[in-house]
């Protein structure tokens, strides 16, 4: 059984902005409901993101609140109805609500900036590497579950190959390039790692991918809580969501101040890291040594 789907951070932003527009005009929810022929509970559900909003209902609210055209267009792009159903809906019975939201957010993002402290970001992992990440747990997932998760990860990576691809900028801690990805004491780990390193060097050549390595001698990074990813929305054109992804939980941060802090931390990481050319050279040397 999976969790009931929950509103994404961008849907919550839409709900929050609609409430701010109403209160800015000193309108009570009952007044809005009366003018539009709705129930007060409908206004409340929309403003708390407990229910979605249709395109027609959104237009009626925007007209009532006299929202300028440019702001209205932005709010329409945030609406759930503006985002078509995607491939992930086929996995709805097995994806957690958090993971489904993460995939939807990535699909609606123009850019992603990420720091990998232990492993490469999922969008950069080879299928063999993903498989080892999934297996490195006490839970011992069944083979069909492992392959399903590998398939979902590969579908996530399609955002880098789209007609208008996501712009990905990743900083990897150097330790990521040395950590074997297989059963201890076997040759599997070195083989999987070599394939992963070769793929990183190859994908770094794409015009929409920038890859940097934070070397050991760069000193302590500006973050101590591990990996993080900052998403830039296609709707807003600005960084608006940070997510922290691990095996059992996905956490989202959408407060403006916190998103800004992670963005500044990423900027500092890029300044501490090797430049892209030197980073790829290091990756290729380490791949050859495997």
TrEMBL record:
**SMART domains, alphabetized:** HTH_XRE
HTH cro/C1-type domain residues are 18-74
Instruction: Identify the CDD domains for this entry.
Output: HTH_XRE
A UniProt-annotated Pfam family: HTH_31
The GO terms this record gives for MF are: DNA binding
Which SUPFAM superfamilies does the UniProt record give? lambda repressor-like DNA-binding domains
Q: Which residues cross the membrane?
A: none
List the protein's name. Answer: Transcriptional regulator, XRE family
């Amino acid at each position: 059984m999976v969790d009931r789907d929950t509103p994404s951070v961008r849907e919550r932003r839409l709900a929050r902005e609609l409430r701010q527009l109403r209160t800015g005009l000193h309108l009570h929810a009952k007044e809005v409901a009366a003018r539009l022929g709705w129930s007060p509970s409908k206004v409340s559900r929309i403003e708390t993101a407990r229910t979605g909003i249709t395109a027609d209902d959104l237009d009626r609210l925007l007209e009532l609140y006299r929202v300028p055209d440019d702001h209205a267009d932005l709010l329409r792009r945030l609406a759930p109805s503006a985002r078509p159903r995607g491939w992930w809906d086929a996995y709805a019975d097995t994806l957690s609500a958090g993971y489904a939201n993460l995939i939807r957010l990535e699909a609606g993002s123009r850019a992603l900036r990420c720091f990998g402290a232990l492993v490469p970001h999922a969008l950069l992992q080879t299928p063999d590497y993903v498989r080892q990440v999934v297996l490195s747990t006490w839970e011992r997932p069944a083979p069909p579950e492992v392959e399903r998760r590998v398939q979902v990860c590969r579908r996530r990576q399609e955002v880098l190959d789209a007609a208008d691809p996501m712009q990905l900028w990743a900083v990897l801690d150097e330790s990521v390039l040395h950590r074997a990805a297989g059963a201890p004491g076997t040759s599997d780990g070195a083989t999987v790692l070599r394939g992963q390193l070769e793929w990183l060097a190859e994908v770094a050549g794409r015009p929409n991918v920038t890859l940097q390595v934070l070397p050991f001698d760069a000193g302590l990074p500006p973050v101590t809580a591990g990996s993080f990813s900052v998403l830039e929305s296609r709707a807003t054109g600005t960084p608006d969501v940070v997510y922290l992804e691990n095996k059992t939980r996905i956490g989202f941060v959408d407060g403006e101040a916190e998103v800004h802090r992670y963005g500044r931390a990423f900027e500092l990481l890029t300044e501490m890291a090797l430049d892209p050319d030197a980073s790829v050279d290091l990756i290729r040397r380490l791949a050859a040594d495997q």
